[in-house]
Amino acid sequence: MTAPLNLGVIGLGRAFTLMLPTFAVDPRIRLVAASDPRTEARERFAAEFNAKAFEDAEALCADPDVAAVYVASPHQFHVDHVKLAARHGKHVLVEKPMALSVDDCREMIAAAKAGGVKLLVGHSHSFDLPYLRARAMIGSGAYGRVRMINALNFTDFMYRPRRPEELDASKGGGVVFSQAAHQVDIVRLLAQAKATSVRAFTGNWDAARHTEGAYSAQIKFEDGSFASLTYSGYAHFDSDELMGWWGELGQRRDGGAASYGRARANLAKAASVAEETAMKNARAYGPSGRDAFQTGGEIAHNHFGLMVVSCEHADLRPLPNGVMVYGDTARHLDELPSPKIPRAEVVDELYAAAMLDQAPLHSGEWGLATLEICLAILQAAKSGSEVKLRWQV
Length: 393
Description:
- The chain is of the alpha/beta class.
- The chain has 2 domains: 5-125 and 344-363, NAD(P)-binding Rossmann-like Domain (Rossmann fold); 126-340 and 375-388, 2-Layer Sandwich (Dihydrodipicolinate Reductase, domain 2), CATH 3.30.360.
- It contains 11 helices and 15 strands.
- The strands form 2 sheets. A 9-stranded mixed sheet has the order 14-13-12-11-7-10-9-8-15. A 6-stranded parallel sheet has the order 3-2-1-4-5-6, with helices on both faces.
- Helix 4 packs parallel to helix 5, helix 5 runs antiparallel to helix 11 and helix 6 (129-139) runs parallel beside helix 7.
- The chain is globular.
- The two termini are 36 Å apart.
- 49% of the residues are buried.
């Protein structure tokens, strides 16, 4: 029997709730500890998982029963929490974005090396099996080289309940830090070449939610290929419509008229910042416990909107149930079975790194390269000029 990895969690907020259905049922993971400032979240975690709960991240990282730490705290705390875990000799999985600056990322990488631990950055949707399958298909050489990638995602991101800092780009808010990290990761995974430069525009179109809510970016790669990335979080068109109404997290969506505009309608019930923050906290782990975050019923693989990879002899389109191949003379679906455990690929990589001493794909260097492109999107949009890249892998 495979020995489980004893995992501690820093931050029981929204990021943790998205990974909870994975960690709670994957036999390779044992949730043994968590830290969070909210008393109700700590008490619920301790009771549901027969685990330790700490108010302080330092105490969690010092616990000898913890072998690896999942850093799911708000973006601005990632650098301190990763350095803390590494100092205590714990392997680390840190949520995207890795940090808010290149210098912070470099400090995190150095801390992991000094501590002799593995550092992984995720979960991003580049862990999802359809994208990994597409990467393997491209790597086989059967379809020729990648020449162009088009990525498109429209969501209601801007109208989900937010804390004030999540609507402040200087503190890691807006769609570029939170959502471009997914899209950039996927595009880099599939391009299989180093990015060299970025051009971009961003949209900031709602004075009541004054941060970047949309972007359009172009990435150039060293082999001459290029990618176009478009994202909008303004809750009008929903690109799940292009995915057969499978949701981003693999759940069945109701695409009917009755569900249209739900995010804006729910947010309108919050009459103050405090009420919106309370709505945000209600979506986190705590009072309702783990049952509120079980997927239940039929699930598909996660996705991040429309993605078309144009190779020399085919266009490849990752889907929630496989990869559609549009070849020179015919098209076919390279089908994938439904997942038994959602996002199990994250555990595949984490377990291999922490327990089997394998180098992770989504390493600290990988996370730094993705963050550099996210920062370049903001810089290019502000300057109107092409931004050259330095830290790509």
